[in-house]
Structures are given as structure tokens and as C-alpha cells.
């Protein structure tokens, strides 16, 4: 396998955030975004290439799951919560 590059990891991070933002339910959306940020921040100083490859594989699997969930969320969306309408009016 090719060595993980910073640009690949950054691209994966951005894709996860983008898919997380597609979720229509506020709680699921905020959880996905927070979980993505926390996971990447937690492994920021990791240098072992084999561990990084394992984490990239796991993140790629999570990205595919998040894509499916975002699609289902858009098909069976819910009404906006009060907190969402307040955040959008500022």
C-alpha cells in the first residue's frame, strides 16, 4: 500500500465534514461533525504509517456509511428544530 499523505488525510477529513453537513436532523448532523473533528484531532500527532493506514481505512468505511445515512436522511427528512431557525436568523 502507498504511504498515507497529508493531502489524502485532509481530503478525507473534508469529505467527512461535507457528508456530515448533509444530514437533515440537527442532532445527528452536529454529532457527525463533532465526532469527525474530535477523531482527527485525537490522532493529529500520530506518526506510525501502519496505524495511519488502518485509521484511513476505518475513516473511509465511516465515510461510506455517512454517505448512505445522509441519503436516507434527505429522503426521510424531518422538520427543523427551534435551535436551527434561531441560528439561521442571526
TrEMBL record:
<dbReference type="InterPro" id="IPR051522">
    <property type="entry name" value="ISC_assembly_LYR"/>
</dbReference>
<dbReference type="GO" id="GO:0016226">
    <property type="term" value="P:iron-sulfur cluster assembly"/>
</dbReference>
<comment type="similarity">
    <text>Belongs to the complex I LYR family.</text>
</comment>
<dbReference type="InterPro" id="IPR008011">
    <property type="entry name" value="Complex1_LYR_dom"/>
</dbReference>
<protein>
    <recommendedName>
        <fullName>Complex 1 LYR protein domain-containing protein</fullName>
    </recommendedName>
</protein>
<dbReference type="GO" id="GO:1990221">
    <property type="term" value="C:L-cysteine desulfurase complex"/>
</dbReference>
<feature type="domain" description="Complex 1 LYR protein">
    <location>
        <begin position="8"/>
        <end position="65"/>
    </location>
</feature>
<dbReference type="Pfam" id="PF05347">
    <property type="entry name" value="Complex1_LYR"/>
</dbReference>
<dbReference type="GO" id="GO:0005739">
    <property type="term" value="C:mitochondrion"/>
</dbReference>
<dbReference type="InterPro" id="IPR045297">
    <property type="entry name" value="Complex1_LYR_LYRM4"/>
</dbReference>
